Each structure stands twice: as C-alpha cells, then as structure tokens.
Amino acid sequence: MPETDLIHNETAGIERLLEIMRRLRDPKGGCPWDIEQNFASIAPYTIEEAYEVADAIEREAWDELKGELGDLLFQSVFHAQMAAEAGHFTFQDVVTTMSNKMVSRHPHVFGDESREKSADQQTADWEAIKAAERADKAQRGTLDGVAVGLPALLRAYKLQKRAARVGFDWPSADNVIDKIAEESAELVEARDSLSQAEVEEEFGDLMFVMANLGRHLGVEPEAALRAANAKFTRRFEGVEAKLSARGKRPEDSDLTEMDALWDEVKVESRAAAKTDHK
C-alpha cells in the first residue's frame, strides 16, 4: 500500500500510526517541531499523558479515556521512532519485549504451572520472577530498578516496599506513627532554629515516613493524594460558587467567610455522598 494511502486509511490500525510518526520525523518533509525533539524533551509529555489517563479513569470519563490512551500510545510510538532512527530498537522490538515479559511472568496462564494459587502466592511468584530479571540485568541491589524518574511520593512508596521485602521494615503501623511524631518534632525544631536547607530535609523525612504509613495501612500515597487534591478542588469550587451567588469573588472575601462556606460545602458534599450510596 502506498504511504499516502496508508496514512489516510482509517482501518490500518497501528501500522497507520507508525507511518504517521515516521513522516512527522522525516527530515525532508516532516514537522519541524517533531524533528527537533529528543528523548529528554519528550519524556515530560509522556509523564503528563500518563497522568491524564489516570485523571480520566478517576473521573470515569470513558469517552475521554479513549483519547487519553491514544495520546499515551503516541508517546510510545514517538520514543520508538527516535530509538529506531538512532539504531537502538524498533517499535516491533518494544512489542516483542513486552509480550515475552508477560508470557514469562505468567507461567500459570501460558505455561505448565497451576492456576490454583492464592493472590498472595501469585504476588510472591511475580516478585521472584522480577528479582531474577533484575539479576539478569546485573541489578544486584535491593533498590536497583526503582525508577529515579517516578514522582517522588510514588518512588518513596516503592523504595520502602522493596526494602520491606528483605525485612527492613517496622513491625506495625504503630511504630510508623511513633516515627511520624518524632519527625514532626524534628521539623518544628528545624523551623525554629535551623537553616532553610535543614527545614527542607526534615520536611522530606516526614513525607517519606508518611508514605511508609500509607504502605502499612494498604494505602497507595500517590493515589490518596490525588484523591485529596480532587476533593479540595471540588470543595473550593463550591466555596467560589457560593461566593458568586453573593456577588463576590474569593479576593473580595476573607478567611472567616470562606471557612464558613467551606464547612457548608463539606456538609453538603457528605450528604450528597450518602444519598448516592443509598
């Protein structure tokens, strides 16, 4: 099929997208912006698209999710095209690597192992397989392979989870709560008598322990904070709506009024949630 026909063939699937990407990066006739990009410049867009996928799922915006998944797929295609141009690998290599990994990590589905396993046993088997993969990559340390580019809160959670697998962990959530109290006191001391750099260090220590508490409570801290952000956004927008009904904007109000409206919005949102769950 001629390249032009492929690009305009809406039934051509992934091959059409790959050809579009190749043309966008064509030094002679492609898009100047796309041609100028490299792995480092595109990586922030990749992260952003992943968060937009998560946002659409959280809002249950299924029509939007289709587009967001497409945007994320395009990021993979973009990186693979640049890799092919540099002679590193192709998109087909990406697909083959992922397929091989999934087959290898699911011997109870694609191999001879029994599917009659508990979820805990499957998790243990999964971790053992991943540990063997890291060993093949010469990643010998317990924390090797926890991506540096992850959001800091998520990376803290994963680092602690990895350390816990080899026994480096507090016995219970109560021990973590005690540590939070200790770190909080150290932060107050730093605020009152130490440098800004030391305040930042103590604040980071406190956040790190908070992430560990989430793990002990079965709470993924990144997801929990996203939910808290969304709740704050909804409630503050509710405050703005109530102010607007009074002919005012936040800058025309004060903390006392806005705090009272916040309490009203909170009560209303909880009542609405109870009604939805009936």
Summarize this structure as a short list of keywords or feature phrases.
mainly alpha; Helix Hairpins; 74% helix; Nucleoside triphosphate pyrophosphohydrolase; EC 3.6.1.8; ATP diphosphatase activity; NTP_PyrPHydrolase_MazG; PRib-ATP_PPHydrolase-like
What does this molecule look like?
This is Nucleoside triphosphate pyrophosphohydrolase. It is a single chain. The protein is 74% helix and 0% strand. It is mainly α and 278 residues long. It has three domains: 3-103, MazG-like (Helix Hairpins, Orthogonal Bundle), CATH 1.10.287; 141-219, Helix Hairpins, CATH 1.10.287; 222-276. Helix 2 (14-24) crosses helix 5 (62-86), helix 9 crosses helix 11 and helix 12 crosses helix 13 (255-276). The longest helix has 25 residues, at 62-86. The chain is globular and about 70 Å long. The termini are far apart.
